[in-house]
Amino acid sequence: MAEEMNLNKTVVHVFKILDAINASESPQGVSELTRATQLPKTTVFRLLTTLEHLGIVDVNSIQQYKIGPKIFEYSKSASRQNSLVQVAKPYMKKYVEENHENINIGILYDNQVVYLDSEEGDHFNLQVNLFPVAPLYCSSMGKIFLSQFSEAELEHYLNKTDLKRRTINTLDTPEKLKQELDVVRKGKVSYDNEEYEYGLTCIAVPIIESGKIIAAASVSGPTSRLKVRGWDNIKQSIIEFGESINNTL
């Protein structure tokens, strides 16, 4: 009961409407959806108008509603992400067995890195702070995504993003970040050198399908341990991991 009290009623009403549309074999009008959802007619109409504007539902010439194109985009995206995790999972497990470090898969969403999956290597206290999202400018996977931005997209991102200085290593000016992204584009490898959190280092590579970066993979661990195991060894291991995924997709 306490959980239900914390739910946003508007969101709940939206999904009641979408469930009713989805359950019908033909487009539904406002009156039919009002009966199906037991919501006030004015509420149903108001929410449908917003959903139509967003592309979540489509309306025909006689004001009947069906699932819109945006939902199919979400469906395809979810299917692609699930497929990526399924493809990557055995390689992730193998990576941890051989290298004993965390391996992560992330995607770009709403100008953040969203972690899709992770396999944990040897324990370290900072790993809990990696999930579920990370900023683009101070994470290794984030800089992989930023490296594919057009000049206009990058300027837009920089104009609306506070490059907060999380550590003394954080690239906290547009000039520093742009220089770093030039290096990432050339080398196809990105580093988080304790830029997100002290003691944590990450190295990332792009996951590419049909010539487009669809995700990124990173190895993460305590700086001291990665240093002992050898930067070149860790870098080569994540490059080979990325190539394995890319060759499978």
TrEMBL record:
PROSITE patterns: HTH_ICLR (PS51077), ICLR_ED (PS51078)
UniProt-listed Pfam families: HTH_IclR, IclR_C
Keywords: DNA-binding, Transcription, Transcription regulation
Keyword Zinc-finger: no
Domain IclR-ED positions: 70-249
GO MF terms, alphabetically ordered: DNA binding; DNA-binding transcription factor activity
HTH iclR-type domain span: 8-69
Name the UniProt record assigns to this protein: Transcriptional regulator, iclr family
Organism, as annotated: Companilactobacillus bobalius DSM 19674
